[in-house]
Specification:
about 250 residues, alpha/beta, Carbamate kinase, 9-stranded mixed β-sheet, 9 helices, 11 strands, globular
């Protein structure tokens, strides 16, 4: 844990020392049809700063669906490999925007890209990323895994294992995992806790199978929660039961 943690017996004590936040591109667009809402980006940056200021080491994986979604483009006729690479470029755009929002709050930040784009981001180097986290720097991973056919959910699971994060926090617009889409099926059941195998067996689409399998093989818990509700990220880090936890 970094030296940013608050001192004193009454200071809140995080239950996680290092987390990986999976931030979707959709989360950054707010109520817009596409693109980035600067106000939403700033609010989420504030949530991350609160957690960082507790002494928690924070890594972030950003998606690109608010700008371009490879799977959707492939379904409409674009070559899947090309579509996925374009999607990776979209994650770089989002990562830069989120870095800017964090730095406006005086949060030291580095962007690591799986695709070399040295004018904008550092190349992903594991040891460098870990040292930066240990120094209290928020590290943003962009460019996916650098390979087509892998989602940013899988990137989040992979990076979490590589940096030894204690948990993956998957930010969504709903308050956990449901048996069906609660906006379509009002009677859908919310799960407070699931095993990795239950997510696969129930065909729950909250996170892709590759990410679940990778997390299961490495015993990395996943918490699915609503990031639109202010304070949820901090509450999870402090041990409150928010959203749905997926573990073995």
């Amino acid at each position: 844990m970094t030296n940013l943690a608050k001192k004193g017996a009454d200071a809140p004590r995080p239950v996680y020392g290092r987390i990986l936040l999976k931030l979707s591109g959709e989360a950054l667009k707010g109520n817009r049809a596409y693109g980035i809402d600067p106000d939403v980006c700033s609010r989420i940056a504030g949530e991350v700063k609160q957690v960082r200021d507790l002494g928690v080491e924070v890594a972030v994986v950003v998606g690109g669906g608010n700008i371009f979604r490879g799977v959707s483009a492939a379904a409409k006729g674009m070559d899947r490999t090309t579509a996925d690479y374009v999607g990776m470029l979209a994650t770089i755009m989002n990562g830069m925007a989120f870095q800017g929002a964090l730095e406006k709050l005086s949060v030291s930040t580095r962007v690591h890209s799986a695709i070399e784009i040295k004018e904008l981001a550092e190349p992903f180097i594991l040891r460098r990323a870990v040292k930066q986290l240990e120094s209290g720097i928020v590290v943003i991973f962009v460019g996916g895994t650098g390979n087509p056919f892998f989602s940013t959910d899988t990137t989040a699971a992979l990076r979490a294992v590589e940096i030894n994060a204690q948990v993956v926090l998957k930010a969504t617009k709903v308050d956990g995992v449901y048996s069906a889409d609660p906006e379509v099926v009002p009677s859908a059941k919310k799960f407070d806790e699931l095993t990795y195998l239950q997510v696969i067996e129930k065909h729950l689409k909250v996170i892709d199978t590759t990410a679940i399998t990778l997390s299961m093989d490495n015993n990395t818990p996943i918490v699915v929660f609503n990031l639109t509700k202010t304070g949820n990220l901090r509450k999870i880090v402090l041990g409150e039961k928010i959203g749905t936890i997926i573990r073995g």
